[in-house]
Design goal:
about 250 residues, mainly alpha, elongated
């Protein structure tokens, strides 16, 4: 009994020792990570840079489509200027705003919700490191159904007509993506949303492939009528100056 009790105690001791080593390894890893974060932030002179860079890399790794997107890669290059010791703070400031615009374009092309969140992260990063900036123009745009309502019934009907038509596939893909993306824009952006829809309506009206099928006027008018009813004030503002109205050109 004494022998088996000793073995049992030794097993317990061994388990405790192993757990202690694991906890120690985790603690060392956390400390090293914290030191690494602090070192990188100090090296660049930008608070929060390590966390921002980590998020950017994770998004690219989690979704290769985003990682391989040309505009996402341009954003990464712009952000990386933060690490250039010879670059001026003014150049880095400019690069951050360029990066924000690249995120918007990459987001519109991929509709990955993480890029909506990344806009917020970058805006916060800019505000943190350039507190005197007016960051009102860094409000995030939404281009996916997680942060926005789905397309309206009217626009969904237009999308279905385009999808079921005999238009070339590249036109279907491009026009449907535009219509969905503009639908995702919130009513805070109703002016831009109205203009975007009306420009697409004009493009469809004058597109030779739509004309060939005899559906250009019908689909264009459906988009215009939707905008008239949904955003009457914005529609009137947009069409006030006929010389700038693409529908009447």
């Amino acid at each position: 009994m004494h022998f088996f009790g000793l073995v049992k105690n030794n097993k317990i001791f061994l388990i405790i020792a192993i757990l202690s080593l694991i906890i120690l390894a985790i603690t060392i890893s956390i400390v090293n990570l914290g030191n690494n974060k602090l070192a990188i932030n100090r090296q660049t002179g930008f608070t929060g840079y390590y966390d921002l860079k980590t998020k950017i890399n994770k998004i690219a790794n989690d979704n290769p489509t985003v990682g391989q997107n040309r505009n996402y890669q341009k954003m990464v290059t712009s952000i990386a200027l933060i690490e250039e010791t010879k670059a001026s703070k003014e150049d880095k400031h400019k690069a951050l705003y360029e990066a924000f615009n690249y995120i918007i374009v990459a987001y519109a092309e991929t509709n990955d919700h993480n890029l909506y969140l990344l806009q917020k992260d970058l805006a916060s990063f800019i505000n943190l490191n350039f507190p005197k900036d007016n960051t009102d123009n860094l409000k995030p745009s939404c281009f996916d159904p997680i942060c926005a309502n789905p397309p309206s019934t009217e626009i969904t009907n237009v999308i279905n007509k385009i999808q079921s038509s005999n238009l070339p596939s590249y036109i279907k893909k491009s026009d449907i993506k535009m219509l969905k993306n503009f639908s995702y824009l919130t009513n805070d952006n109703s002016g831009s949303k109205t203009g975007d829809f009306l420009i697409v309506a004009s493009m469809i009206k004058n597109n030779s492939e739509y004309i060939k099928l005899g559906i250009n006027i019908k689909i264009s008018d459906e988009i215009i009528n939707y905008v008239k009813n949904a955003y009457p004030k914005e529609y009137d503002n947009f069409t006030q100056n006929k010389s700038q109205n693409p529908i009447n050109q």
